[in-house]
Amino acid sequence: MKKTIYLAICALFACCFWACLSSSSNDSAPVENLPKHVILVGFDGWSAYSVNNGADMPTVRRLMAEGSTDLKSRSVLPSSSAVNWASMFMGAGPELHGYTEWGSRVPELPSRTIGNYEIFPNIFGLYRQQAPQAEIGLVYEWIGIKFLVDTLAMDYVQQAAMNVENPDGCTPFAVNYIKEKKPNFLAVIYDQPDGTGHGQGWESPEYFAKINHLDQCLAQIIQATEEAGILDETVFIVTSDHGGIDKGHGGKTMKEMERPLIFWGKGIKQGHTIEESTMIYDIASTIAYLLGVEQPQVWTGRPVISVFE
Ligand SMILES: [Zn+2]
Questions:
Q1: Distance 77 CA to ligand 1 centre (A)
Q2: How far, in Å, from the CA of 81 to the mean position of ligand 1?
Q3: Selecting from 3.40.50.300, 3.90.1300.10, 3.40.720.10, 3.40.190.170, what CATH number does the domain 41-307 have?
Q4: Mean pLDDT, residues 69-76
Q5: Looking at per-residue confidence, does 27 or 38 come out higher?
Q6: Ligand 1 centre and the CA of 148: distance in Å?
Q7: 37 pairs with which residues across the strands?
Q8: For residue 51, which of 251, 198, 267, 240 has the smallest C-alpha distance?
Q9: Helix, strand or coil for residue 271?
Q10: For the chain, first and last CA: distance in Å?
Q11: Nearest to 43, CA basis, from 198, 218, 235
Q12: 135 C-alpha to ligand 1 centroid (Å)
């Protein structure tokens, strides 16, 4: 009798265990295909118009051919820097995060919600909360970036300058960091071609030369992930904060409002044109999806699901 009860209990446990296993594998169907690394590369002031009108950018062209692309992804208004970088990292527009201007360092409107790092919830801090052991980094050039992110959530924060001594700006820092630490999430945010656009114009030969230079920087970053042995487990997101027209931006033309948004790497559809509308704040949501981070209610972004195989 005792043996029968024992066997019955064993059978019950086996059933429960099996049920748990199958339900978890159903719930997390896409998880097995998620990358271990996400690298976001941003070029300040890089317009979708330039890609459609003669930019060489061989590395970008390769990523477009082997990945998924939207050349109609929109910035939030105004088509200025801080308000858009904030939206990219914070999964929502200026009405909610409150950073509304070109150079906002604190929100002009009170943020609708304050997260664990005393700032509107953004992807860096949310990922840290979820993954205490993750390696998280940021390399940037424009000083305004550091006011829009959870620097305390990061293992590595480096400001770089693009100048005669360091012609590739962020690049060597990002390359060394990738090789040394194999980051799970890294954002590399260049301050060009914005400066060239303001100086010589958004359709000037100098602007097109600068985006080709940045394309070579991107190639170096990809090369570093290959040398670090993580390329097969990485998704790259390459984008910008806004475009430009004549020698400026901030206004309401499509040359200013439309940005390239390119996904490339593990599990990303090849040669795919994203047909649905995407906004700059959808980038945070897509990164959250890729890193397995639950999106907070206050975010309005949506992951760009169609790019996944
Ligand atoms: Zn900008």
A1: 12
A2: 3
A3: 3.40.720.10
A4: 98
A5: 38
A6: 13
A7: 234
A8: 240
A9: coil
A10: 54
A11: 218
A12: 27
